[in-house]
Amino acid sequence: AGVETVKRAVQLDVASRFQESLVCYQEGIDLLLQVVKATTDEAKKHRYRQKISELTSLSDGKYHKQIRIEENATGFGYEKLFQEYLTEIVSEVWVEDPYIRQVHQASRYWLYNFLRFCEMLVKGPCKVKTIHLLTSYDEGIGRSQQMSALEEIKESLSNYGVILNIDFSSSIHDREIRFNNGWMIKIGRGLDYFKKPQGRFSIGYCDFDLRPCHETTVDVFHTKYTKKI
Question: Which residue spans within 118-215 are E strands per DSSP?
Fold first, then answer.
């Protein structure tokens, strides 16, 4: 299965279908890693490790995609944006966003957006076990609300077998999301690129695909496959 997956990856690479080829490379590497763990023959392990190294070099640094979300555009819910990168081997996610704070401030729904993102991860098809959140403390009276909401999300995720690790930084500015299959997504507005719904019973309040967006840019990269053998 690993050989066939790698062959398919090479074919897609030659056809300049880099996104699809990277997914195949990742799956091929993952299958070979399983073989390495299962074999006791040191010579075979050495050959497999060499092959994994070659595949890593082939897949490394070949992909950058930019998506421009126009003002008031719809159809950019989290599933639409992230699902193709959430392959079955994804088990760990990092979210860095300084504004996962108040439920409502300046027409923004940061905490609800993060909750919606977590819901998407729980639904799969990935098998996420750990989510790391790095954000900043809310200032003033909003901090207790922030902490209470994050703890509630953490407890709720634990019911689905997902651990939420929360850290805070007073100097964080960049916004990015990383998956342990090598994909990294940078969104200019972070998870908060949706406009305030017109009302609690208006179309788009629950379904983010129908929610108008603020103008923003999404950059998708692939980083070096760093899983340890």
Answer: 130-135, 163-168, 176-179, 183-187
- Give the separation between CA 100 and CA 110, rounded to whole angstroms: 5
Instruction: Print the domain residue range for 147.
Output: 65-222
Q: How many domains does the chain have?
A: 2
Extract the runs of DSSP E, i.e. beta strands, from the chain.
Answer: 64-69, 92-96, 130-135, 163-168, 176-179, 183-187, 216-222
Same domain, 107 and 212: yes
**This prediction's pTM:** 0.72
Give the rounded distance of the alpha carbon of 43 from its chain centre: 36
Distance CA 26, CA 179 (A): 12
Calculate the CA 199 to chain-centre distance.
Answer: 29
The CATH code of the domain that includes 52 is: 1.20.58.80
Residue 227 domain-assigned (yes or no): no
> What pLDDT sits at residue 57?
61
Question: Which single residue is written with the structure tokens 């908060």?
Answer: 192
- Mean pLDDT (10-residue bins), the chain, 229 residues: 72 66 75 81 80 65 79 96 88 94 58 94 92 89 85 97 96 92 91 90 93 95 53
196-220 pLDDT tens trace = 888 889 999 999 999 999 999 999 8
The answer as to whether 42 is a domain residue is yes
- The domain boundary residue, chosen from 12, 29, 60: 60
At 17 the pLDDT is 67
CATH code (residue 104)? 3.30.870.30
The domain boundary residue, chosen from 60, 77, 96: 60
